[in-house]
Design a protein that fits this description.
Layout (H helix, E strand, L loop, with lengths): L2 H4 L2 H19 L3 H11 L13 H12 L4 H15 L14 H10 L4 H13 L4 H4 L5 E3 L4 E2 L6 H8 L7 E3 L7 H9 L9 E3 L6 H14 L5 E3 L6 H14 L5 E3 L7 H13 L5 E3 L6 H12 L7 E3 L7 H13 L5 E3 L7 H13 L5 E3 L6 H7 L1 H6 L5 E3 L6 H14 L5 E3 L6 H14 L5 E3 L6 H14 L5 E3 L7 H13 L5 E3 L6 H12 L7 E3 L6 H12 L7 E3 L6 H14 L5 E3 L7 H13 L5 E3 L6 H8 L5
Parallel strand pairs: 3-4, 4-5, 5-6, 6-7, 7-8, 8-9, 9-10, 10-11, 11-12, 12-13, 13-14, 14-15, 15-16, 16-17, 17-18, 18-19
Antiparallel strand pairs: 1-2
Helix pairs in contact: 2-3, 2-7, 5-7, 6-9, 9-10, 10-11, 11-12, 12-13, 13-14, 14-15, 15-16, 16-17, 17-19, 19-20, 20-21, 21-22, 22-23, 23-24, 24-25, 25-26, 26-27
Length: 639
């Protein structure tokens, strides 16, 4: 059975429509001409390919189907047959063995080339029913890790052949759970393909054996620049094998070894490799077990290495001694630009060491410290170093228990620092007092572009103070105030600021309680604001009254491009008002009405409005009851 056979009737129709759209772009044919060509070439939906048919007969079938179409459609249809309809399986009945060479033969038979491969990639990106989304129609052992236990015959064989084709630039086998023999055979082709640049093999559990096989192939390869093999249980032995590659390979620039159970021993070998390597720019070791000893090893190597620009050490149990090593390295290394230390054991003493390193560092631009326990004393110890720092542009301090006292330290930093443009302070329990303190800093600082204050219990007073700050601040572009218990009074305060602010581009107010009147206040501000492009009001209890007024104000708005109104109980009345708005609005590109108690009657009104609207590119109305109706009109949206 093929992927095509797994689809239901409506899904098949939508799939064909999306394919025709892509064909239209590729061949400059009209839509009707493209769909007629496909109708002529693709057999009726009821017909199924016999997967046991001989290989030669299938080859004849493909040639016959594509012979009467223009060249570009010829290539495109072959791509569809190979990658979607899966009518060219490799099996024991068609080949003498299951080696990668046989897969290569199969791929060459249908003339897979760069134009075809690019077409496949475009279809995968453009179609709602791409391969990964097909997975939900299979029997999955877990929705968390997406392991597929039931797969159409031949899929993995065809995919394994791609790596051996001479013009494939990217190989992505993430989550495919390919049988180990097939995967090892596929990896073996890495050494043969000298055009392959990106290799993605995450979540396949190929273990140490797969890592050694991959290392063998990479030693021969001189083209791959990005290797991702996260969640494969390679352990220290697998890390050692990959490290030996880095000592010799001079092309790999990005290496992702996340979630592989690598400990201090494996890190020891990586450190030695980093000392010798001069091309690696990004190393990701998220969720391993390197601990302090592993961090010390890596930092010693970075005192010598001058090529690595980004180092990801999230969730690695790094404590005091590891942070001491990081501090010493930051004093000397001016090459490293990005350091991620989320989910480690960074508390007061570690924060003090980090501050000492930052004070003398002249290269760091991005620092991630979320989900630690820095506390208000820790951020206080970092004030002087961050006030004087002239290179850091992105700082993530989310979920660090900074509280309202920590907000005072942040205000002192923002008053003097002129380089930080992106600041994440989500989940820090600032409360009303902390919100007011940060609003004061926002009134002064004109450098900050993106500020995330998600889930900080700011409430109405904090929101109103921030609204006042928006009158004076003309630098902020993105502001996230979601989940802060903001009601009508807070929404009115923010609306007042929006009327006078000319810099804000994105505003997030999801999961608050602004209600119908709060949404009306925000929508009234939109009639005067000509810069806001993204407004997110999900889960705010707006209901039909708020949606109706918002729709009325949006008719004349020529700036807003994205509107999120999910989970707001707007009902049929609100949906019909928004449908009328869509007929007149000339700027909206994305509208999300997920889960709003909308019936099939108003759904049809929205569908008709979408047909008339010329700008909307993305429209979400998903609801368990009406999803079938949604699929019927979704493809009316302009591409």
């Amino acid at each position: 059975m093929s992927l095509y056979d797994w689809m239901e009737q409506e899904q098949k129709l939508n799939f064909i429509v999306s394919v025709c759209r892509a064909l239209e772009k590729a061949s400059n044919l009209s839509f009707s001409s493209s769909i007629n060509s496909l109708k002529e070439a693709i057999p009726p939906i009821s017909q199924k390919f016999d997967i046991h048919r001989s290989y030669q007969e299938l080859q004849v079938k493909i040639t016959h189907l594509t012979s009467k179409l223009p060249t570009i459609i010829d290539v495109s249809l072959k791509a569809l047959i190979l990658n979607f309809l899966e009518c060219v399986p490799i099996s024991k009945t068609t080949t003498t063995s299951n080696s990668p060479r046989d897969c290569l033969l199969a791929v060459e038979t249908v003339q897979l080339n760069s134009r075809l491969y690019n077409f496949i990639s475009r279809i995968l990106q453009d179609s709602l029913y791409d391969v990964k989304k097909f997975q939900k129609y299979f029997d999955c052992s877990s929705e968390v890790n997406h392991k597929i236990s039931k797969k159409p015959p031949g899929r993995n064989d065809n995919l394994a052949g791609y790596v051996l084709t001479r013009d494939v630039r990217r190989m992505d086998f993430k989550f495919y759970q390919i049988e180990i023999e097939r995967l090892l055979g596929c990896i073996d082709g890495v050494g043969v393909n000298h055009f392959l640049r990106e290799l993605e093999l995450s979540c396949n559990d190929f273990g140490v054996a797969g890592a050694k096989k991959l290392a063998s192939g990479l030693k021969k390869n001189r083209s791959v620049v990005s290797v991702t093999i996260g969640a494969n249980s390679i352990g220290d032995d697998g890390a050692n094998a990959i490290s030996n590659v880095l000592k010799l390979n001079q092309t790999i620039e990005r290496l992702n070894l996340s979630n592989n159970g690598i400990g201090p021993n494996g890190t020891q070998q990586l450190g030695e490799a980093i000392r010798m390597n001069r091309t690696l720019k990004s190393l990701i070791l998220f969720k391993n077990n390197i601990a302090d000893e592993g961090a010390q090893t890596l930092m010693r190597a970075l005192k010598i290495n001058t090529s690595i620009l980004s180092l990801d050490l999230r969730k690695n149990q790094i404590g005091l001694e590891g942070m001491r090593a990081i501090m010493e390295t930051l004093k000397l290394n001016s090459t490293l630009k990005t350091l991620e230390l989320y989910w480690n054991n960074v508390e007061l003493r570690e924060a003090q060491l980090l501050a000492e390193g930052l004070e003398m560092n002249t290269g760091m631009t991005t620092l991630g410290l979320s989900w630690n326990y820095i506390g208000y004393q820790g951020i206080e110890s970092m004030v002087e170093s961050l006030k004087l720092n002239r290179t850091l542009t992105k700082l993530n301090l989310g979920w660090n228990h900074l509280q309202n006292i920590g907000a005072v330290s942040l205000k002192n930093i923002l008053k003097h620092n002129r380089t930080i443009t992106n600041l994440n302070l989500s989940g820090n329990e600032f409360g009303v007092e902390g919100g007011a303190t940060l609003a004061e800093a926002l009134s002064i600082n004109q450098t900050l572009k993106n500020l995330n204050l998600y889930s900080n219990k700011l409430e109405n007073l904090g929101a109103r103070r921030i609204g006042i700050a928006l009158k004076w601040n003309q630098g902020i572009e993105t502001l996230n105030l979601s989940s802060n218990n903001i009601t009508l009074l807070g929404a009115e305060g923010l609306a007042t600021g929006l009327k006078q602010n000319s810099s804000l581009r994105q505003l997030y107010l999801d999961q608050n309680k602004i209600g119908p009147k709060g949404s009306i206040a925000i929508s009234d501000a939109l009639s005067l604001n000509n810069t806001l492009k993204h407004l997110s009001l999900g889960k705010n209890g707006i209901k039909h009254h708020g949606a109706t007024i918002l729709a009325r104000n949006l008719r004349q708005n020529g700036c807003l491009q994205t509107l999120i109104l999910s989970h707001n109980q707007i009902g049929d009345t609100g949906a019909i008002s928004l449908a009328e708005c869509l007929k007149h609005n000339k700027s909206l590109q994305k509208l999300d009405l997920t889960c709003n108690e909308i019936s099939s009657v108003s759904t049809k009104s929205l569908a008709e409005a979408v047909k008339i609207n010329t700008t909307l590119c993305e429209f979400n109305l998903y609801c368990k009851i009406f999803w079938r109706v949604f699929f019927c009109f979704l493809f009316c949206v302009r591409e």
